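User: What would this chain look like folded?
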Amino acid sequence: MSNSRNRIILVDDNIANLSQGKNILKMFYEVFAAESAAKLFEILENILADLILLDIDMPEMNGYEAIKKLKADKRFADIPVIFLTAKNDINSEREGFDLGAADYVFKPFSPPLLIKRIDNQLLIVNKTKDLQASQKKLEEYAANLKTAVQEKTDEVLDLQNVVLATIADLVEFRDNSTGNHIARTQRYLEILFNGLMEKDSEYKDIISKWNVDFFLQSAQLHDVGKIAISDTILNKPGKLTPEEFEVMKTHVMAGVDVIERVLSKTKKHAFLDHALLICGTHHEKWDGSGYPIGLRGKNIPLEGRLMAIVDVYDALVADRPYKKALSHEEACKIIEDSSGTHFDPYLVDIFREKKDEFARITDEEQENIAPSTTLG
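Assistant: Here's the prediction, encoded as structure tokens.
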């Protein structure tokens, strides 16, 4: 028998049976007596019972009607019901079980048998409560663990972002003419990414599998190879000679080498994969005339095709030692005219739709743009 004081509602329209049953049960349980089904539902509005002993033959609402009402109410549907009946026939029992009864006790009942039947059902009730409590604790533990893991993940990501930003700052510190180029291109890249996500196309199918935060973070490393370029060329106050430009072009493979070294010493990670493709292919051109490999069309990874547009746009609207900044409108015309030659035509269409957002960023950061020597 259960040691806890479970709550039982005893329902019987016979006052003698009600009194007898309550006297038998009150030693072991907290018992609430109801002389009708209507009274049962009154009690349930204030007391959530663990078990109901329900007489079948009652006026106004019999036991079968009462159990239907109980099972139809989600508040009471899981409360086990033991029918009390003087009927001893198979059809009555089958009907009761079909309606959801947990057990039957026949009247006049034997007190030990009645208590045993009740305890069998309450054992299930109490085990269910224990299981639910354990489940709740497990869910709380899982939630706390998830929070802890997320906090730790956020710490790692924050550290990763700081390291990336520091590396990017080092590049810009050496190439002191680009003036916040990395931060701006990252913002432009997000605009193009969001534009692609708004369209149903093969491009959306591709980028929907990306982690957008990792992708955008990786763009900070697109010019990391400039660390290997001499200051004489990197900060030359004028246009580069053809020979100097050939040296400048080597920053792409130098950057690839840097990222590959990191990849060789750590576990595979999406942001490094994106960084490798952006760094290595953002100077390739749609018609195959780009560098360092001369990839053509969709053989150029999508990361590189996206970066190519934002990199050139930012270079066009910035002051450089050998040229004044072009207007937003002039830069847009150059990019749109280069559709199908320098740039992926589909991405240029997205750029055209989003160019007002590019202009907004350009206007916001125009005062921070400093001169430069190359187109990135």
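The chain is about 55% helix and 5% strand. If you want, I can go into more detail on any region.
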